[in-house]
Specification:
With 274 residues, this protein is of the alpha/beta class. The protein has 2 domains: 142 residues, NAD(P)-binding Rossmann-like Domain (Rossmann fold, 3-Layer(aba) Sandwich); 91 residues. 58% of the residues lie in helices and 14% in strands. α3 runs parallel beside α4, α6 packs across α8 and α6 crosses α10.
């Protein structure tokens, strides 16, 4: 199979180029500095994969969609799905959306999760592509564009927003990581690691995740309300209200609390023993 990756000169594109090459497929890529254009690649490939920044994905898809035939497969790797999948369905090709739940710096796909959106394809095509990732050790989770974007508003939108707000709060109160380093607990050290990890990456990437997914706004509004409730409880010194809030969330999380404790105990011990 001839695989063409638009944006294949980028980090994620290069990662998936290697995946397809190891599976025995012929891979060609295009990017801003390549001789090949996205049109050239789309016309010459059996499978076309779009791996460009979130804000550019739909435009690139719409540029190549009219060129594709029912014998081709069109995929994307972006972290939003409703818009890109709808744009891909404007083509005549089979359509599958992919979202790797990891960054391009991973050493391999082993133990990683890839979200799969089978929008329009045969079972055989879907199975063949998923097996490529599974042979490298990845797990696949099937979803719809709507469910994917709704859950990503929490998995990415809420998580990254809270992490950014930890950094912003520290900046506002005038405390640096170096100031707090002599006082660090293992849990705080892990939290600071997540903050530093986010801030070392591209603001455009995180801005697009938050601003281009319409599901993020109501999630952040709910987060704001929850923080305001906690602020009122703490300011009032209302122990009963705090216990009630705490226990409601224990019930909501259920047995996951025990599993999370075991997993984070392992992580904390690894931090201590490194």
């Amino acid at each position: 199979m001839k695989v063409g990756i638009i944006g294949g000169t980028g980090k994620m594109g290069r990662l998936f180029s290697g995946v397809f090459e190891r599976a025995g497929h012929e891979v060609h890529v295009c990017g801003r500095t390549t001789f090949l254009s996205c049109v050239d690649l789309a016309e010459a490939s059996d499978l076309v994969m779009v791996s460009v920044p979130i804000r550019d994905t739909v435009d690139v898809i719409r540029r190549i969609a009219p060129l594709l035939t029912p014998d081709q497969i069109l995929c994307d790797l972006t972290s939003l799905k409703t818009g890109p999948v709808a744009a891909m369905l404007e083509s005549a090709a089979s359509v599958i959306g992919f979202h790797p739940m990891f960054g391009p710096g991973v050493p391999s796909l082993n133990g990683q999760i890839i979200i799969v959106i089978p929008a329009r394809c045969s079972r055989e095509t879907l199975r063949a592509l998923c097996s490529i990732f599974e042979r490298e050790g990845a797990s696949v989770t099937f979803s719809t564009p709507e469910e994917h974007d709704r859950i990503m508003a929490l998995v990415q939108g809420l998580t990254h927003s809270v992490t950014l707000m930890v950094a912003e709060t520290m900046r506002r109160v005038g405390v640096t990581p170096e100031d707090s380093a002599p006082f660090m607990s293992p849990v705080y050290q892990i939290e600071m690691g997540l903050v530093g990890r986010l801030l070392s990456q591209s603001p455009e990437l995180y801005g697009d995740m938050l601003m281009l997914n319409p599901n993020v706004t109501p999630v952040l509004a709910a987060c704001k309300e929850a923080l305001e409730d906690l602020l009122r409880i703490v300011t009032a010194g209302d122990k009963e209200a705090f216990s009630d809030l705490f226990e409601k969330n224990v019930t909501h999380f259920g047995s996951y609390c025990d599993r999370a404790t075991a997993e984070t105990d392992y992580l904390i011990q690894a931090m201590v023993n490194r």
